[in-house]
């Protein structure tokens, strides 16, 4: 087991050192591997389609077993948990296979490309005895835990409005995963899941009305979207997504007596409490590594406890977020080549 960073919470040192297998050898798999500097555990195998890229990834991160055969990795009884880090268009197959093989699974967000596929993943988890969670890492950040505690304490009064944006100029190469319809590209499934998970957490997943304005890219996926939601009691959310614009990325939860603001909310390293547009309190929570370490600690603890779900991101949460995403995509009329015929 690699040595842990010295600033990790003391209780993390008591967690069992899980042996991880990675499915996928891209940037997010690298981030997960690096986050284990703060949490007990080691990546012992990585599986991806391209043998040269997989071998290079393994060598760069000291992973002893590079593979291109998923069945071979899942047959390894020494692996405790699998992290699915493939494009979200192909999450379902490795998730279900890993659960059926008796592995615990952390699946990169979104859990899948649509509600029906998401439900199949959850059904596989229910049929297993393993721990399973969608990797909504923002949910576990200390900044958001602080923000939620202020909201629950009534520091902003009654919550009435949520606004959030996230966007960056994405590569325009039509074969890039963000632009390719065959890979379920577009803003909604890549970055929209962050704002939808936040909305579901704060306001709930059952808005009475959802309105969508959107603009497609040259490949037909959603390049920009503005989403408005209203709940039956009058609470509202205003969300903006873009693969064209460099957005500030602040999330603001506003109430009758104040507001909580989290700059760069999906990374969440600081949180502000405001009253009448004046900041009256600020707390900062620098990442120990890259922020993913908090979700890794949470699922490691769940595995150690024999829990199938993780309280910070339950299966019901994943279903509600997927249902919201599907509702928005249906409003857009956006379909992918692999979608079943209507």
Automatic annotation (TrEMBL):
It holds the Pfam family GFO_IDH_MocA_C3. Residues 144-260 form the GFO/IDH/MocA-like oxidoreductase domain. Coiled coil: none annotated. Keywords: Oxidoreductase. The keyword Lipoprotein does not apply. Residues 18-133 form the Gfo/Idh/MocA-like oxidoreductase N-terminal domain. It comes from the Bacteria. One of its GO terms (molecular function) is oxidoreductase activity. Belongs to the Gfo/Idh/MocA family. This is Putative oxidoreductase. It comes from Euzebya pacifica.
